[in-house]
Amino acid sequence: MQIDKKIAVVTGASSGLGAAISTALVENGARVYGLARNKNALDELKKILGENFISVEVDISEEKAVTKWISKTFSEQCCPDILINNAGIGSFGKIDEIPTTEWLSMVNTNINGMYYLTSRMVPFMKQKIDSSHVINIGSILGTMARAESAAYSTTKFGVRGFSEALFKELRDFNIKVTCLNPGSIDSEFFKSSGIEAHQNMLQPQDLAATVIHILHTPDNMLINELTIRPLNPRKP
Predict the structure, then answer these.
(1) CA 71/CA 59 separation, integer angstroms
(2) Superfamily the domain 7-228 falls into
(3) Does Oxidoreductase appear among the keywords (predicted)?
(4) Which residues are part of the catalytic machinery?
């Protein structure tokens, strides 16, 4: 895919990997709708990226809000080319200590939000002659779980399953689906999860470059799943 002049939607765009992906897409000529709950952070990113970044304050776990935004933004004359389902939250702890509210919050954002966006955007992508691409950001913990990650791993294993089924469902419509499973990332995600981020973690801009590489693959070539992890993940 040639990214120049394509229309992209990136969730969780206000910081970390989402901001890095949005930046890389704009730098490659795309028009990016950046979705997040943090309006101030989105506005700051827009100051940097300019008119090709459109900030959208929305909580993707709220189905009605997602449906309303998509219906007023896209049409037969304006179809999205790229969807990056990046938004995700994580909370870690023993299964008998994790509050139900935190479990549901992860499911609603990491799984339901991805479903709301994808299910409502795919009909527009099906109308396109050129190929479209859905990239779902999974996790290394969606390929192998560890202790005290039951809630988060459940959602990320779900992202993998969703991606695999979607790939088989949409390939005949010229829609690519990729699941990208990163290891630990030096981003706000870990800070908000109570885990100290450090420079040996994957850097958001490096993963964003990988996303651009995935999008740039020839029309009849698909990277349907990719796992990336730091070589030496321990804190220096």
Answers:
(1) 16
(2) NAD(P)-binding Rossmann-like Domain (3.40.50.720)
(3) yes
(4) 152
Q: Ramachandran region of residue 12, left (φ > 0), alpha (ψ -120 to 50) or beta?
A: left
What would the pLDDT profile of 153-185 be if each residue is shown by its tens digit?
Answer: 999 999 999 999 999 999 999 999 999 999 989
Tokens of 224: 């349907």
Q: Which residues, at least 6 apart from 158, have a Cβ–Cβ distance to it below 8 Å? A: 110, 111, 142
Q: How far apart are CA 124 and CA 182, in angstroms?
A: 28
pLDDT band at residue 198, thresholds of 50, 70 and 90?
A: low
Domain boundaries, the chain: 7-228
* CA distances (Å), origin 188, targets 85, 185, 212: 17, 9, 22
Beta-strand relationship, 53-57 and 175-182: unpaired
What is the pTM (predicted TM-score) of this model? Answer: 0.94
